[in-house]
């Protein structure tokens, strides 16, 4: 089965992201706005059941933290993806690092750039127009993150929550 780990921001940030995603993100219907902290990986259900206690332990040892978004950026020239840039606070970077070490699958593609995708798979002209207009806008979005979600992918390509791990909880 294919799994991933993400953070889901508050309604204000989701609404802002969705105002763009409806038009510019080909994955709009597959998953709500999120910050991917561990790219999709394959694992059997038994392997996952063995890994869940590690996620509980990790979450239990984390404290809530605040994320901030002030601007839009892109992954050009690698791809025509536009995103809300999440400031890389220490706690977020630490969470990502811990999810890629120890008993967790360590395969990692690109460097970790915290973001919320608002447009992807755009044609070059559309990308240029959308990115130019988005860059002129400034954002002042914040959220307190106090949990992460383990997701799994359904047959239709959409993602759904398998389990939620709340920071600082003693449920091992």
Automatic annotation (TrEMBL):
Chain location of the short sequence motif HXTX 1 per the record: 34-37
Motif, HXTX 2: chain positions: 115-118
Keywords per UniProt: Hydrolase
UniProt-listed Enzyme Commission number(s): 3.1.-.-
A single GO molecular function term of this UniProt record: hydrolase activity, acting on ester bonds
Pfam families on file: 2_5_RNA_ligase2 (PF13563)
Active-site residues annotated for this sequence: 34 (proton donor), 115 (proton acceptor)
Cross-referenced NCBIfam families: PRK13679.1 (NF010223)
Family to which the UniProt record says this protein belongs: Belongs to the 2H phosphoesterase superfamily. YjcG family.
Protein name stated in the entry: Putative phosphoesterase FHP05_10410
């Amino acid at each position: 089965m294919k799994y991933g780990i993400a953070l889901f921001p508050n309604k204000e940030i989701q609404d802002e992201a969705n105002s763009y995603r409806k038009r510019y993100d080909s994955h709009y219907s597959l998953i709500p706005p999120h910050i991917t902290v561990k790219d999709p990986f394959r694992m059997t259900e038994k392997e996952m059941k063995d890994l869940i206690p590690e996620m509980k332990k990790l979450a239990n040892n984390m404290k809530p933290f605040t994320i901030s978004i002030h601007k839009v950026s892109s992954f050009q020239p690698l791809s025509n993806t536009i995103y809300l840039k999440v400031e890389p606070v220490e706690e977020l970077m630490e969470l990502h690092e811990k999810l890629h070490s120890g008993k967790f699958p360590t395969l990692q593609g690109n460097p970790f750039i915290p973001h919320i995708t608002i447009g992807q798979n755009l044609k070059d002209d559309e990308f240029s127009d959308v990115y130019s207009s988005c860059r002129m806008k400034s954002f002042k979005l914040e959220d307190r993150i106090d949990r992460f979600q383990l997701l799994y992918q359904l047959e239709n390509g959409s993602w759904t929550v398998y389990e939620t791990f709340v920071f600082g909880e003693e449920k091992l």
